[in-house]
Amino acid sequence: MKLFYLALLLILFFSCIEKKTIPDKKEVKVTDQEIVVKEFQTIIDSANVKGAILIYDFEKNKYYSNDFQWAQKGNLPASTFKITNSIIALEIGIVENDSTLFKWNGENRRLKAWEQDLTFTNAFRLSCVPCYQEIARKIGVKKMKEYLDKLEYRNMIVDATNIDLFWLEGASRINQFQQIDFLKRFYKSELPISERTEQIMKRMMVIEKKDAYKLSGKTGWSISNGNNNGWFVGYIESQNKTYFFATNVEPKEQFDMNRFPMIRKNVTYKAFEQLRIIK
Fold first, then answer.
1. 65-91 pLDDT tens trace
2. How would residue 254 be classed by pLDDT, with cut points 50, 70 and 90?
3. What are the sequence ranges of the domains in the chain?
4. Does pLDDT of 211 surpass 90?
5. 113 contact partners, CB below 8 Å, separation of at least 6
6. Nearest 10 degrees: CA dihedral of 158, 178, 213, 113?
7. How far apart are CA 65 and CA 271, in angstroms?
8. Other Cβ atoms closer than 10 A to 10
9. Average model confidence (pLDDT) across the chain
10. 254/123 Cα distance (integer angstroms)
């Protein structure tokens, strides 16, 4: 009889263990709000980069990523800061509107596309570093700090020695969750800025507009101590829903750096397809 009860207890014990086993799904919950999507890691690995894709479903209040730890790691904002830099420039009148012209002084620039007169919109979309360095110098340290605090854009280290470089090199940091938080507040008209500035920025940020969706955002690329770090941040409006995203990647060894500018976008688009945001 004792052997019978012992066998029964063992059967019950192992059946309980089996029920607690996590099923092999593409999506695994970290918390009710954070869901690991294994396919995102496959996308990252296939691109020969390391990093994280972070997508936020505004309606469901859920985050999707392959690596939430990476998404919490701070990096230089690089040219994603052009969103904030543009907002401040418009708010204090350094730049009048999206048609304001930036005259080229004839000096050689890193990219040929920058060696021309550019409207504010084109300077933003072509990510003209010299144009935005000029803007930052005109804003100045005092106003820059004042507006960074006002906009709650934290962890930027700004002083007289780096006013035109602090987003590209140095100790300034932002993580993927913070990128999305800022974009979400901007999108929801919660930033303390004028409606005019907001509407100008929303026009400038549009990257692609199709029948099925509209994509808005900004890329960024910093090189610090020989380490390349790339961003693609923004939001996509699709099927009457809005999703915010922040992708941050770094190339692995023996990576073809000519592909790096497009990789940031490519992996993000594939993640959209994985979540069926776009087809």
1. 999 999 999 999 999 999 999 999 999
2. confident
3. 20-274
4. yes
5. 126, 128
6. 20
7. 9
8. 10
9. 91
10. 32
Strands (E), 87-226: 101-102, 118-119, 206-209, 213-224
pLDDT of residue 31: 76
The single residue of 65, 79, 86, 216 carrying the catalytic annotation is 79
What's the rounded Cα separation, in Å, for the pair 43 and 52? 10
Quote the CA–CA distance of 36 and 42 in Å, as a whole number: 12
Residue 18 clears pLDDT 80, i.e. is over it? no
pLDDT (mean) for 121-146: 98
CA distance 23 to 5: 30
Residue with tokens 């009457």: 240
**CA 69 – CA 176 distance, rounded (Å):** 10
Beta strands 27-29; 34-37: pairing state: antiparallel
Q: What is the DSSP string of 182-212?
A: HHHHHHTT-SSS-HHHHHHHHHHTEEEE-SS
Quick check: 185 and 85 in contact, CB under 8 A? no
Tokens in use for 227? 């380490």
d(CA 15, CA 4): 17
Helices 82-92, 129-150: axis angle to 10 degrees equals: 70
CATH class of the structural domain 20-274: alpha beta
Concatenating the DSSP letter of every residue in 4-26 gives HHHHHHHHHHHHHHHHHSPP--S
Mean pLDDT computed over 96-118: 95
Active site residue 79: yes
